[in-house]
Amino acid sequence: MNSAITILLTILVFGVIIMIHELGHFIVAKLCGVRVLEFSMGMGPAIFTHQKKSEEMELDPETGTMMPVNRNTKYSVRILPIGGYVSMEGEDSASKDERAFCNKPIWKRFLIVVAGAVMNLLLGFLILVGAVSTMEHVPTKQIASFQENAASQAAGLAVGDEILKVNGHSTLTYDDVITEILSDDDGTVDFQIKRDGTVQNIEKVTFYTEITDSKRELDIDFKLLAVENSVGGTLSYSAGRAVSLGKLVWVSLGDLVTGKVGFDQLSGPVGVGEALGQAASISVMNLLILIAFLTINVGIFNLLPIPALDGGRLIFILIEAIFRKPVPAKYEGLIHAVGLLFLFGLMIIVTLKDIIRLF
């Protein structure tokens, strides 16, 4: 795909994902009666702003006179289409305004903070629904046929078996079955299946493997059944696939923490842009599934208990709920600032690594 188109596609995808995230915060903040100072589409200098006029008056402590003040939400469009933000009264500092974020009940603040991630997860599901609805047939976890002299059939698997678990890991969709088998270390796999209404374990199913270019290729010697698509099938498969993608995010994070996956395999915007270009060049379906994975990834990542992320803010809200006393705003703000610097630093390092790899 053309480099310019890939860049535009990457900006558009990230812009929509971040905008949807911020829209979640904005909608729930408004519903909870929080004073939203600004809702911005994009970053950088504003090219368009709108703010409903207000007739409110406030005493100016310096002059002792009443001055007009406008506390209505400012809506702005900014020059760089790379996301957006929501600014709320009392979000990062103390405020006497009864509509300030900091003065709202804990449960309302919790809903506002978590709303961004929920919107990302919902967007991922809806994208999958759109993609799956175009399919004539939906794959299942039921075995349809075997290759000739299939080792898996000889080990005990049979046509009609529904695969429930692979190596102890639950499978929600066809994709889970394939992913779990291919990620096996030695090619010997344990299955839990449902046959004629009863659950059975078929252990030590050994698949044929071949080593090529220092990579192990495993031959899955059976095919899974695909059924005619329907509204129910679309919703069911899309929901299962969304959960599977979310699980993949957690597994990837776990592999990164444990060292199973190296830091060199971590990708930033440049690496993601390259992947988007490759997916788009293959098919629209591949592109949509990757976008769904990205928005689900953003939603889950934002819930991690890292300062500056929504998950970090949730930790402070939970601390307040447990101890009945909030952490002083200046200390919470400092911790979030440090977390933000760490995330920016990590992003810069990963982006530079991606650029170096390209050349």
TrEMBL record:
Tagged with keyword Transmembrane: yes
Alphabetized GO MF terms: metal ion binding; metalloendopeptidase activity
Chain ranges passing through the membrane: 7-28, 110-132, 284-304, 333-352
Keywords associated with the record: Hydrolase, Membrane, Metal-binding, Metalloprotease, Protease, Transmembrane, Transmembrane helix, Zinc
Subcellular location: Membrane
Annotated PDZ domain residues: 111-181
Membrane topology: Multi-pass membrane protein
Enzyme's top EC category: hydrolase
Pfam families: PDZ_6, Peptidase_M50
GO terms, biological process: proteolysis
InterPro entries reported in the protein's UniProt record: PDZ (IPR001478), PDZ_6 (IPR041489), PDZ_sf (IPR036034), Pept_M50_Zn (IPR004387), Peptidase_M50 (IPR008915)
Family from the record: Belongs to the peptidase M50B family.
Descriptive protein name: Zinc metalloprotease
Native source organism of the sequence: Massiliimalia timonensis
Lineage of origin: Bacteria, Bacillati, Bacillota, Clostridia, Eubacteriales
